[in-house]
Structures are given as C-alpha cells and as structure tokens.
Amino acid sequence: MKRKSNWVLTTILALSSLNSCTQEFNYDPSDEIMSNAENIFGLIDPSQDWRTVTSGTVTITANADLDDIAKVQILTESPFFNDQAKILAEADVTAGQTVKLNYDAPRSNNRLIAACIDSNGKYYIKGFNIEDENISFSSSTPATTRGLGITRASSSLPDLSTISLDFSSSFKSYNAIRSTKNSEWIGKNWEQDRLWQPVGSLNSNGWTMSNSVIYKDAPALSDEDAATLQDIFDASLSRYVNGKPRNNLQYINESSTVKLFGNHLESNGKAALTLCPVQMASTEACWCSIYYYYYRTADIPTGTTEADYIKALPKFKAIDVTAERRAFSANSGIAIDDKDPTFQRLHEYLLPFYGNVSEFSLLPASLLSNGYTTDGKLYRIYNYSDNKYHFITNGGRDDDLKAEYTENVEEQLWQIFENSSDGTFMFYNVASKKFLWFPEDQNSNNNRPYLNDITESSLQKYKFYITDSKINPTDSRTQVYIYIYNKSKCVKADAGIKLGTGAKNSTNEYREWTFEEYSPSPVAAITDFELPIALYPSDHMVPPSTTPSAIIPEGYRIGFMIRKNGGEGVSEKTSTEKQGCLYGYGELNTEINTYGQFKTAVSSYGMELNSPRMATFNANNKVYLCFEEGADTQYSDVIVEIGSSGETGVLMFDDVPEVANLPYTMCFEDRPNVADYDMNDVVLRCIRKSPTQLELSLIATGAQDQVYIEGIGGSLVSGTELNNKEVHDLFGVSNDTFVNTELSAGVISAVSAVYEVSESTTIPQFLTNIYIRNYSQAGNEIRVPEKGEPPFALIVPGDFNYPIERVSIINAYTAFRTWANNAYNYGAWQDSYDESKIYTNPYNR
C-alpha cells in the first residue's frame, strides 16, 4: 500500500490517545478518512449509497413460440451468440403458466431480458424496460409460423417462367479478374468464377424484379420487433465497446455453423428461401451486393476440394444492398453513407433455384453452340409489292432492297440459321458474311434492320421470328412475316428501296416475305459461324434451360458472398483497394484477406487468412446472416433475416446457449484513512450454485497486512472454510505478497467454499454482511460503507475487472468519479476504462 508510514503514525497517535490496542474502528467517517477520500474522489455526494444493483419484481407469462416450455428466466442480456448473458432469476414452469420473479439487476441495465426455455434448452426472449411489471411473449403483431417444414402457399410465390439467366448478363468476379494478374490469385483456381444476374421481367403475386433481384414488400417491423432485434444484436454483435469497434471474431469462430458446416445452410425443399435486410449500419454498406450459390456435396468430384469446387460455381445475385440502403435512408432520413443503426424491414428477396449447377456448361464461341443450325441451303428473300420484286441485298442502309441480280448474285443470297428451342432465326448474308440486325436506336429514323457484324455479347438483336399474319410460328416460307426479336415490330419493304419496320399485327403486301431456294450455289454454304472471342470468351457458360424454381430442392448447401465495389457508381471516387468478394465460407477468403483495405483485418484485428466474413446464428426461431464487408471484424455491417414470416427454406440449427448465474465481485480497501482506492486489497467472488447454496471465492489480495475475512453467513457445505481466515494464509503466501493484482505476476487459483443459505437470501444481502478485519491495524473492521461514506468496500455485479495494484479506481474507470460526486449519475462507468490499468478477473480469463 502507498503512504504506509503515514498510516502507522496516525495509528500510533490514535492508540496513544485511547490507551487501548483493542479499540475497534467502526467507520464513523473521521476527518482523516474523508480528507483522504476527497483528495481522490472530490466531494462525495452525501446521498451516495454505492448501490450497484436495481431490485425489482416482474410477472412473466410463459407463452413464447416454443414446442414446450420448461423454465422462465430473467437475464442481463440476450443469450444468443453471446457468452456474457447472466441469469438474475428463474423458475420452473409449464407452457402458459404465470409466475412472479424477484431480481437484482446491474444498475447500468435499463433493459432486461425475459426468456422462455424449452426442455432441450432452446431460448425464446423478449426484452423489457426495468420498470415494466408484466411480460407476455404473445406479440401485438400477427403470429408468424416457424420455418420447420412449413411451406409458403404456392399462390404467394411468383411465376418465374418470364426470367432466365443469360451469359451476357453475367460478369467475372474480382477474384476471376485478379486470377491472371495478381500473384496472390494466380494458380488459385478462380479463373471460371462468374457472377450471374437474372434477366427478363416479373410482376407476379406481388413480386417484381429490379436491379436483377426478385423482391416484394415485406411486413414492416413493429416497434416491439425492432426493440427485440436491438436487444439481440446489442448483445451478440455489438458494434462498439468503450467507444471502439468491438472485435466479434471469437464468437464467429465458435459457432456451430462455422465448425460443422463451413458457414453454409442446407435447403429443406419445403419452402422458398428469402432474405430480408434488417440493418445496414456500415457507412460503406451502400457499396455492396449479396450473392449466393448452392451445391450438393455428392457432386464434388473425387480429388477436388470443396473450396476449389465452389470457386467455379455460378454465384447468383440475391440483394442489391445499394438500392436497399437507399430505401432505408428514405425511411430513417440518414444519408446512405452515414452510420445507420436503425432496424427496419422493407423488402423480402427471393433466391430462386436456377437448376443443378452441374448442368452449367462451357460454351464454344459459335452459332451451333448457341443452338443455331442451318439446312445448308441458300435463299433469296424478297417482297412483292407495287407490282415489283424487292430482294434483300447486301448494300447501304438506305438502299438494301434491289431488283433481282443476275450477276454478283451472292449479294442477295442468305443462309438461314434456326434455333429450334426458342423458335428464332438468324439471317446470314454469304457475300458480306454479316447478319441481319435490328439496332432499335433511340433515333426513330434508324429503327430499321440492316446488315451488321456481330458486335455485341448478346445475340438478341440478331434474332428474328418467321410467322404467319397472326404472329404464330409457321413452317411456310411463302408470304410470311418477319418479326424482330421481341415481336414488337415486323420487317417491311419501305418505298421499295430499303428495309423498314411496321406496327405489330398490321398485315399488307409490304410486310409479306418469301424465301426462295437458290441453286446451283455459286459459293459453299457454311455449317457454323465462329463468334468473336472478345465477346464470347473461352469461359462462356450456358445455364440450364429449365425454368427457374422458387424453391431450392432438399439437400443443397447454400453459401453467401458480399461483393463490395469500392464505391463504383455510388461515390465520387472508386477505391480499388476496397473492391472484393467476401465469403461466409472462410476458405474462399485466403486471397482477399491479403489485399487492399481487407488485409488490415488480419494485420490489425486478429483475423486469419481463412476466417469467415459472415456470422450465422439463430434467435427466436429466426436465422440471421451478419456480414463483415470491411476490416474491423464487427460482423454487423449488414444484417439479414431469413424469411419474413419465419419460413426459412433451410434446416434449422440450434446453438443452445449456456447461460450461468450472475456472479458478484466484492472489493475491499484495508486502510480507509490512507486508502489508494485500487479496490483490490481483498477481492471476493460469489455466485449461486443452487437455490440454497452460494459459492464464495477469495480471488485476490493487494494487502500487505494481516487481514481476515469475517461475517460469512450460512453453514459450510464444501470447499475451504473462508470465515475467520487470513487471506494470505488461504493463498499460502506471506503477508507481503500480492496475489492476482499485478500484471507481471502469474495467476494464482482462487480459494472457494460453498455455503448453505436460505432460498430467499440474495447475493447482495449475503455479501453485505461480510467484512474484513485488519489485525495489523488494531483489528479494524472494514464493512460496506454507510450513505455518504467513501467506498472502502464495493459490491459489483459480474466478474469485475478491478484496478491493478496502486492504481485508483478513478484512473482505471474514468467515469467512476462522476458517480462518486453524484449518486444519481451512475451511468455505465464500467464501460469507460483504461485497459492498461485494470486487472483481468481470473474468472474472465
């Protein structure tokens, strides 16, 4: 202890005046004690009682949405994905039963958690304010069904026959692009990695498609729902602690989905898989989109790792987070690039099944590989109108209709390529080696077909239909109609000199075309046409031709990736250092975790190269996906709920929380009139082991005097008796030895005993009766202070990290002095600490 000589002198003077060595020090605050305390704390509020708990009573009805209910509890915080939740009170119940529970809650808690627990240990929670008296789990919003095999009615799912996948709407991932030029990616098998976006239009059962994602309006969160989510995520993946980003990586690595399934879900085949964003707090969430993939483990070829197999799988767009963040902003009024902590639920996104991914195939760059075949014949194509023949001829855009040629006849000869699967045709001019093309320019004067090289990565505008007058397919090639790719216009002879287009369903001689076979052929016919490699590269993939399904069949693993584009199209400047594909499956992150901004997650925040970039966990019958799109390992940049109504489309997994009773820490100063208030001279811990048994442990001593523990109530059941025992003797060390108060010293195990007490005895009541006696200082007793006295003994809920040796509590916990000066300004002083000045409680290690 500091100032030891002053304490000795004061004691000698006091003892001389009293002529007694046995005079007890009853803590009538002397001028010396108060003067010393005020030098440290300032003026202590006369009404300060150093109370650290709030006592209350609440009535709970056990009616949560669980199959059975065996117990109710009051907790300090949500138990989901969180090992810090503690039990304040509990009772055995049956479903529907109402019970009254008394509790002592940490004074810093404004809210507590009521929980129902089933016979398997599964939790369902509801938060409540400290002043609430009655808790029911029945919601004010309509009841939801849980996704344990309940199928959403097919009438509420969209008809997906109007959408498809097209290679031209896919693009290489950042990983694929870097696989040819970045050393970290070269040879890592990312070359075939492509991101796919559906094409088409959709307006079915409330579902629509925009920005290549399928969605509908979702049921809005009620205030009660939003508060519950706040309770869950404040505890599980809180973004900040002590004003700094909280590293949540340890919780991610310990989750069962990471350990057992590589952070993948598994489809149950009974419901559609839908996602609902509920929070996008990151300032850069607006730079992101979420993609998904699926596969069957049985399809992985022998000798191929799961990671390498996934790299080549198609990744499908699920959520345009940029657009969703704008929608959130419109609701909250918070700019899309500001932190937005609000919980909302605006849209529900559908994740279709596009067919077995093993059916995706590499497509050679040719017409044949795109499904087009030719009969090998040459044709003239003409219109007869105004008593003249008008042949489609290789020429300029304004004079591509000519009279019949007798020389250079190949200028008027065509090969017809037909795609039997979709009924479209492509017209190839043998002289120019070009195709008929409809550009559909914005300038209406240019909206007419003409010959063109293939210059687009889609063949769409080169496709035509041959129909009858009612736009039905026909096998005839005489006086037929030629419609452009979307059947909105038909090809006509314009003034007899050029091709034009006419309105749909209009029939007259200017729109009638005849295909006349020409022989003998002056040139050899072709059987296929090689497409430009720049537009149809070697990794050109053909998706399955099956119609997408709203439900992913049973047995598929489903994984997720968040793609961050570095602000492209959103911010004024694009940062390539912040462009990357970040996967829930950690083995797919070994390259991106070495790159740009993302590598600081490894260098500064403890992430491994193969750490996951997504957390997956259950809470209240829901599954949540929580993404880390940056580097600070908060894992709450974007939070997504699976299934707005509880229908998940995936097998539910239960991480059963292990929740312990709330312990208490009791800290003593052994010399009140010269105390340095490091609050570690004697440190005790108490926790309830059963309704009638409390475990008391001596965990530290910073005393250098002969100090005894006294006043322990109850009878010893087991362990080492602590009552009337000297603290150094209990640890087996000399009186001048500090135990568990110095950072440089090793940790010595606590000494514990279990005591039998009345079931009605609370831990604060039990500890309040305990005091220490300092036999080196005339046998003085140090007890819990009276109102207005200095804090020479404190009872703190939890395993309190007390100050290190010779560091005052006001320096270790910077907000403590504010509370000392104002009894009503308790605040969250334990959250404002200097980590270098506190000793980690042995029970927190």
Automatic annotation (TrEMBL):
InterPro entries given in the database record: DUF4842, Ricin_B-like_lectins
The secretion signal range is: 1-22
Please indicate if the UniProt record lists NAD as a keyword: no
Query: Pfam families annotated for this entry?
Result: DUF4842
Start and end residues of each DUF4842 domain: 789-822
Q: Which residues form a coiled coil?
A: none
Q: Does the keyword Signal apply?
A: yes
Q: Which UniProt keywords apply?
A: Signal
Name of this chain's protein: DUF4842 domain-containing protein
